[in-house]
Design brief:
By secondary structure, this protein is of the alpha/beta class. The chain is built from three helices and eleven strands; from the N terminus they run E-H-E-E-E-E-E-H-E-E-E-E-E-H. The protein has a single domain, classed as BirA Bifunctional Protein, domain 2. The strands form two sheets. Strands 1, 2, 6, 7, 8, 9, 10 and 11 form an eight-stranded mixed sheet that branches. Strands 4-3-5 form a three-stranded mixed sheet, with no helix packed on it.
Length: 233
């Protein structure tokens, strides 16, 4: 999940950067191609690291595609020819992105915010948990399983579904990549991968729409921005 580790302490929240402007927010309309997005992210990270640009939170949707993190294993890509696959330097395994999923790329000066990668990952999870709570969805972390999960007693005892994923990278003290929250994607598309490398049938994937929550992407964006301020300052 994390490609570089700066320190090992934990806790919330990640402190804001004193004397620096608040992070810029960017919302991209339509579907953003992955390669162009990655190139722009890397350029922005370099600019933040050199002090030539403010931090950035970038919300967008991708066309249907799969990204392979640094921990992606053989056998976890179940259908190799359904969607384009992109290798990426972020941590984590295979991840599906597509329409109806809100992706949040988070480019923060982590070094200026204390340099604690574990705290940053915990804060990203907390951001998603609080956003989901705004729609009356109870979600949480699970030991040994990356991402944010919801219990599914309607499917059976002990069943849980993943509703938000995360994978990050840190370069020169600046974070990039980030999170993805399932709002209303085509859940059948996740059948192309083994999410988080977990094959147990009691662990699946869900979305706000699948849980019966009728939330627009704009409403989710509003909640993401509000809860980001709570967690990150």
């Amino acid at each position: 999940m994390v490609s570089e580790r700066l320190t090992t302490a934990t806790g919330l929240p990640i402190p804001p950067v004193s004397g620096k402007p608040a992070p810029e927010w960017r919302l991209s309309a339509g579907l953003a191609g992955y390669e162009a997005t990655l190139a722009e992210m890397e350029s922005r990270v370099a600019a933040i690291a050199s002090g030539n640009a403010p931090e950035l939170v970038w919300l967008l949707e991708h066309p249907a595609l799969i990204t392979a993190g640094t921990s992606a294993g053989e056998g976890e890509l179940l259908v190799s020819d359904r969607f384009p696959v992109f290798k990426t330097g972020r941590g984590g395994r295979y991840t599906y992105h597509g329409p109806g999923q809100r992706v949040g790329y988070v480019m923060l000066d982590l070094k200026a915010r204390g340099g604690d990668v574990r705290k940053f990952v915990h804060s990203l999870e907390e951001w998603q948990i609080r956003t989901l709570a705004a729609f009356d969805v109870t979600a949480g972390r699970r030991e040994g399983r990356i991402g944010v999960w919801v219990e599914r007693p309607d499917k059976g005892e002990g069943f849980e579904d993943k509703i938000a994923a995360l994978g990050i990278r840190v370069r020169k003290g600046v974070t990039f990549h980030g999170v993805s929250l399932n709002v209303s994607p085509d859940l059948s598309h996740f059948e192309a991968i083994m999410p988080c490398g977990i094959s147990e049938q009691r662990y699946g994937v869900t979305s706000l729409a699948d849980l019966g929550v009728k939330a627009s992407m704009a409403e989710v964006d509003d909640a993401l921005r509000e809860k980001f301020a709570e967690v990150f300052g």
